[in-house]
TrEMBL record:
<feature type="domain" description="NADH:flavin oxidoreductase/NADH oxidase N-terminal">
    <location>
        <begin position="5"/>
        <end position="333"/>
    </location>
</feature>
<protein>
    <submittedName>
        <fullName>Alkene reductase</fullName>
    </submittedName>
</protein>
<dbReference type="InterPro" id="IPR001155">
    <property type="entry name" value="OxRdtase_FMN_N"/>
</dbReference>
<dbReference type="Pfam" id="PF00724">
    <property type="entry name" value="Oxidored_FMN"/>
</dbReference>
<dbReference type="InterPro" id="IPR045247">
    <property type="entry name" value="Oye-like"/>
</dbReference>
<dbReference type="InterPro" id="IPR013785">
    <property type="entry name" value="Aldolase_TIM"/>
</dbReference>
Length: 347
């Protein structure tokens, strides 16, 4: 029997999705200057409510989480009210939506806020801020234990704010070389305390954040995105696999809504993961609901789900090009191809 990706999928006792196609989180840098979602964003997300679950663009949990211009936040009442308009519109169109909770760690830039750039260790990234190339990255401050406690508490607070803003749950952004991922990789974490050096210690921050968010909003409303293979703002280290070998069974015990592998092309293999792709590695180590992503078409996703490679598919760029992706697939209509110029406007 083949799985129908357009048929409902029960995520858990709290959440049922109307189909298995998720909208991947997509940063658009279109919030207003107070990092509040705009009316254009309300309409942009509402148009995509036919997907089983929309995952919001990465949304910062506090001011020093910011590394790009006009990324939305979830830490002021104005931002919460702005998101409420988005979630109301998505719900009115029959959709569901999770907020992706973000702190960029060492990829933050003090241009956007007052204070330190925090990271696990004082190791900077090369390069400069996309779209603001004159802003080069600085060497971050290694977070103190008090800093870490504050960060964990602020992820939980942002999760509570997300529920207040009407989201159906949250996806913690633990991927793509940002703060949580920085703790999980040797290239960014050289700490000598209980947050560094061993797989258990390097997983501690990710698990503390996950547990704090679960305590705030419940495990059935908590999801996590991870990138075991380093590919963005991070370099590979052969020891990284051991960290994820420890982390994945720990996550499985938490009975999350889902685990999501964040990657641009899921055919990319990683030496540090013994030649596996992201979804192959995650599937081998994690038995809960897994979301695949990364250059899939509807057809290739269907094949992968039928082969039990993962359970749900997240679609990114094709949903930028085709707000009506689900209807087009259902009706056998041709999709508009994605191009980078489409990022200039919210359609
Ligand atoms: C992304 N991606 C991304 N990932 C994430 O976890 N949070 C984010 O905010 C963003 N932002 C973002 C912006 C843009 C413009 C692109 C193209 C990508 C990665 C995205 O969720 C997804 O993993 C990739 O786009 C691969 O999926 P597709 O596009 O091949 O279906
Ligand atoms: C100002 C826009 C900021 C967007 C930040 C989120 C991520 C955007 C995508 C950038 C592309 C990264 C490409 C990595 C490719 C690796 C291929 C193996």
């Amino acid at each position: 029997m083949t799985t129908d990706l357009l048929a409902p999928f029960k995520l858990n006792n709290t959440i049922e999705l109307k189909n298995r196609v998720l909208m991947a989180p997509l940063t658009r840098c279109m919030a207003d200057d107070n990092l509040v979602p705009t009316q254009d964003m309300v309409e942009y997300y509402a148009r995509r409510a036919e997907t089983g679950l929309i995952i919001s663009e990465a949304t910062i949990i506090r001011p020093d989480a910011q590394g790009y211009p006009n990324t939305p936040g979830l830490f002021t009442s104005e931002q919460i009210q702005g998101w409420k308009k988005v979630t109301d519109a998505v719900h009115a169109n029959g959709g569901k939506m999770f907020a992706q909770l973000w702190h960029v760690g060492r990829v933050a830039h003090p241009h956007f806020f007052d204070g330190d750039v925090l990271a696990p260790s004082a190791i900077g990234v090369e390069g400069s801020v996309p779209r603001m190339r004159e802003l080069t990255y600085i060497t971050p401050k290694a977070a103190t234990i008090d800093d870490i406690k504050g960060l964990v508490a602020d992820y939980a607070k942002a999760a509570e704010n997300a529920i207040e803003a009407g989201f159906d749950g949250v996806e913690i952004h633990g991927a793509n070389g940002y703060l949580i991922d920085q703790f999980l990789h040797y290239a960014a974490n050289t700490r000598s305390d209980e947050y560094g050096q061993t797989p258990e210690n390097m997983s501690r921050f990710a698990l503390e954040v996950t547990d704090a968010v679960i305590a705030a909003v419940g495990n059935e409303r908590t999801a996590l995105r991870v990138t075991p293979g380093a590919y963005f703002n991070m370099s590979e280290d052969s020891r990284d696999k051991a960290v994820f070998d420890y982390l994945l069974p720990e996550l499985e015990k938490r009975d999350l809504a889902y685990l999501h592998g964040g990657i641009f092309d899921d055919s990319t293999t990683f030496e540090s993961l013994e030649g596996k792709t992201t979804s192959e590695f995650l599937r081998a180590g994690y038995k809960g609901t897994l979301v695949g992503v990364g250059s899939y078409s509807f057809e290739s996703a269907k094949e992968a789900i039928n082969d039990a490679k993962f359970d749900l598919i997240a679609i990114g760029r094709p949903l930028i090009a085709n707000p009506d992706y689900i209807s087009k697939i259902a009706n056998g209509e041709e999709l508009v191809p994605y191009s980078d110029e489409m990022l200039a406007e919210l359609k």
